[in-house]
Design a protein that fits this description.
Blueprint: E1 9-12, H1 19-49, H2 56-73, H3 76-83, E2 89-91, H4 92-125, H5 130-133, H6 136-162, E3 171-172, H7 179-185, H8 191-222, H9 228-256, H10 266-287, H11 290-309
Parallel strand pairs: 1-3
Antiparallel strand pairs: 1-2
Amino acid sequence: MQQNNSVTEFILLGLTQDPKRQKMVFVIFFTFYVGTMVGNLLIIMTIKFSQTLGSPIYFFLFYLSLVDTCFSTSTAPRLIVDALSTEKSISYSECMTQIFALHLFGSMEIFVLVLMAIDRCVAICKPLRYSNTMRRQVCVILIALAWLGSFIHSIAQIFLALRLPFCGSNMIDHYCCDMQPLLKLACMDIYGMNLLVVFNSGAICTSSFVILMISYIVILHSLWNHSAEGRKKALSTCTSHIIVVVLFFGPCIFIYTRPPITFPVDKTIAVFYTIGTPFLNPLIYTLRNAEVKNAMRKLWHVRITSESKR
């Protein structure tokens, strides 16, 4: 139930109030967003139409890229438009919608990263059982459960957000709507509400990070039994995953697992996991993966050739 009585819209202060810096914000994040969309859509189409990328890891990579496009779209377009706009207002309903989308796709990204780590753990530690353990039906069920868990998490966030009463300032010191900056504006004792946010978002981030680190420790331990060539290939794959994990989970844990205190640096740190990681994922998973690069070359070479013959 909506509890705010006097606030019908919020003002997003963005990353900076300096006009010159706002133009820089527009150029930088417009470039990032275009790169995110092009890179992730390229991966989605390559995996969708390639006949060589049928293994479970690429099934999960497909959903990671799909989620990245949606996750970035939930925050980047408004940040880009607001950088050149004098009116930076966002309605109450739009704010709630953004919170829902941000947490739906953010938590889904977390779950997909965990599934990718589990997939690599099974592939490296139990190679003989891999094809049976990670068969297509299992992967589909895991993705469905990930979507369900993300939806439940987002509904819980919206339930908490709708219970916040607002009766004073409507200026959000952030570039998007999220629970932490909204809690700062609420006309109530936010200690208990913050505990619920930490229990919800913080627990997901921290527990998933622990699971990921354990899986990579198990993988690195098992690599000692592999040949030098196999060890090198597996290490390359794990390194790319660890880069993504550190860039994504570091800021998330910092933001969602602390007392109800906001810092000016919060919105800058949030850029890393809301915009930075979706931009870097295509680079990490293509530049460090020969199979994906070869599939892209073959797929687009065939398409260009077929178009030229028409």
